[in-house]
Each structure stands twice: as C-alpha cells, then as structure tokens.
Design a protein that fits this description.
It is built from nine helices and no strands. It has 225 residues and is mainly α.
Length: 225
C-alpha cells in the first residue's frame, strides 16, 4: 500500500469574482493565466452554512499545480505528491460534500492515523499549499530583488522542513539548489505580482481553518518523516 505523500519519502516522493483580462504575455500589467484562475476559485469554497466544500477546494488545489511546473523539473516529485493527496481526497468527495467530513468519517472508523488515509493526505496537502503561498508572497514582497532560491529556502524552512527528517530534508535541499532564476519564474507568471499576493492572501484563511480543524481533532501529526 502506498504511504502518504510527503515528498521524497520511501515510496515516492471568493469574495469578489475576478475578471480575467486578455493581455499579451509578459506585457506590463498582464494577468497570469496560471494565477488568475486560482484567485477566482478561492472565492467560492464555502457552502451556504460556511463549510469548506470538498469539490471546490480540490478544484482550487489542482489549479495550484502549474505553479510547481513553473519551478522546473526538479519540483516534479513535489508536484506528484501534491497531486496524489488531492486525488486521494477526491475519491471520497462523492460521499462527503464537506471537506472535514472526510476526516470525521476516518475518525469514526478509527483509521485517521493511517499514512494512506485522507487525514494525513489533507495534512500534507495543507503544508505544500502553505509552501506555495509563502513562496509567491515572498517573491511579491518589496523590493522584489531576492533570488528565487533564497525565497524558496525561506518558504521551505517555515512550512515543510519542521516535519522532514534527515533524508527528506536532504533531498529537498538538493531540489532547492536548482530552481529557475527569479526573472524566469516571474516572467513565466507574466510578472503578475498582484495575483501572487492575492493567491497567498486568499489561501491563508482556508489553510488556517484546515490547520485549526486538524489541531483540534488530534490530526496534526508533527512527527518527522
């Protein structure tokens, strides 16, 4: 049985609606075809009673995957782990319209600690989304001169590294040595600093709710992998 995706472990590794505008790639003020759909999707995650809806949440997560593509082939394993955890949760979506009900079902069955379960999948998905949010926010922060490698190291240190053991952290350290240049990565997103900031801003409240739910239910496993 495949264990929970954690990156380089032993088995793998809306408020207001956004108007999508058409600009020539790289033109001043251009909106990123990668980032703008993420921003739009993050405004429609909650049901009428305020619950995070499973399908919209997972759809938004899928839209984040191309950000990992822009980081180059070295991040392919990270993208695979994120995608794997998304699809693990997606298998339970037809039976659970509310995201947290998936975890509640595992808790009721006593399987919440399984490395192959959705509770662990949601935990690691949250951590990788936090990494992506910190990365984008860090790049958009003034004076916007820090190398991508430096920003990526900082994002990793605050989101994933605390839960990586020696093997996983060593593997990730190698990956972080080979990112594209800051200019190449930013240009691949059309220089859209506004939506880099907006993706992070809109993601954080949802990730904080996920974090709170996991902590309150004893599902925030802090052991290193």
């Amino acid at each position: 049985m495949r264990r929970c995706s954690r990156f380089f472990h032993s088995d793998a590794l809306l408020g207001p609606k956004t108007r999508i505008l058409a600009f020539a790639p790289g033109a001043p003020g251009a909106m990123s075809a990668v980032l703008a759909p993420i921003v739009a999707s993050l405004g429609a995650l909650e049901s009428a009673d305020g619950a995070i809806q499973t399908e919209p949440f997972l759809a938004a997560c899928r839209l984040v995957l191309p950000v990992f593509d822009k980081l180059g082939v070295a991040f392919a394993a990270a993208k695979s782990d994120v995608s794997g955890n998304i699809e693990r949760l997606a298998k339970r979506a037809p039976d659970h319209a509310a995201l947290f009900d998936i975890c509640r079902a595992e808790m009721a069955a006593g399987t919440q600690a399984s490395d192959a379960g959705c509770c662990k999948g949601l935990l690691w998905l949250k951590r990788f989304l936090e990494f992506a949010a910190n990365l984008l926010e860090g790049l958009a922060a003034e004076p916007r001169t820090a190398p991508l490698k430096e920003v990526a190291h900082g994002a990793y240190a605050t989101t994933l590294k605390p839960y990586h053991g020696w093997l996983a952290s060593s593997a990730f350290a190698v990956v972080l040595q080979f990112p594209p240049s800051r200019e190449a990565f930013v240009n691949s997103l059309n220089g859209d600093y506004e939506n880099m900031t907006e993706v992070a801003r809109r993601l954080r409240p949802t990730l904080e709710r996920v974090h709170k739910f996991l902590k309150e239910n004893g599902l925030h496993d802090e052991s290193k992998v």
